[in-house]
Amino acid sequence: MGMKLKRVAVPTSRTELVAEMLRASILSSGLPAGSRLDLDEIASQIGVSRMPVREAVKRLEAEGLVTIFPHRGIEVARLDPAEIEEIFDLRIVLETHAVARAVGRLSSKDLDDIEAVLERMDKPGLARPAWMDLNQRFHHAIYAACGSPRLLELIDKLRVNVERYVRAYLELRGSEHPQRQHHQLFDACRARDVAAAQTILSEHLTDTARLLLEALRNGNAVAPKQGEAP
What we know:
- The structure is a single chain.
- This protein folds into two domains: 14-76, Arc Repressor Mutant, subunit A, CATH 1.10.10.10; 81-217, Four Helix Bundle (Hemerythrin (Met), subunit A) (Up-down Bundle), CATH 1.20.120.530.
- It contains nine helices and three strands, in the order αβααββαααααα.
- It has helices at residues 14-27, 39-46, 50-62, 81-103, 108-121, 128-143, 149-173, 176-190, 194-217, and strands at 36-37, 66-69, 73-76.
- The protein has a three-stranded antiparallel sheet.
- α4 (81-103) packs antiparallel against α9 (194-217).
């Protein structure tokens, strides 16, 4: 197969190393939906035994990133439009709840840090993968103030499931509109306006879901094919 796995910062265990590398490769579309995963090939490429690869794949299955077919093998999970729509519906509920809890708890330092991330996202010519990583940091920096680790865990799990599609979609449509919404969301957080923050965030996620689903249903490519550069 000749899989090319993305290198990541050194984690705490071999299982976590494998999970992080596979996760990063899936999210960047280096391993597109439907790709078959060969445990022996992965183990050989990374230089580990088969056991941590098997455990890592189980973690990714729990996250919805891979599908294990008994007696048939393992594939990078595919999402159809109905599943993507459901995930975004859930994200809107959870993330607007998180931002409502977070707005009043954001410190001056939190706001300064969030603004610094926005400024980095505004830089012309920023590579799309870097922009997406900053996008994740922006949202997480706001939600982290909600004070609910379990809520954050649920949000992260849902985000990871669709992020690979969103990344590829932004390659087609650009980030200008979502970035304007990010600034509006930040302004609402700084003003401690819970209702405005929830409305802007709901519109932000709704717009992303609507345009992504339109692209999928119209047959437009929203993810690189196997072998293409992400």
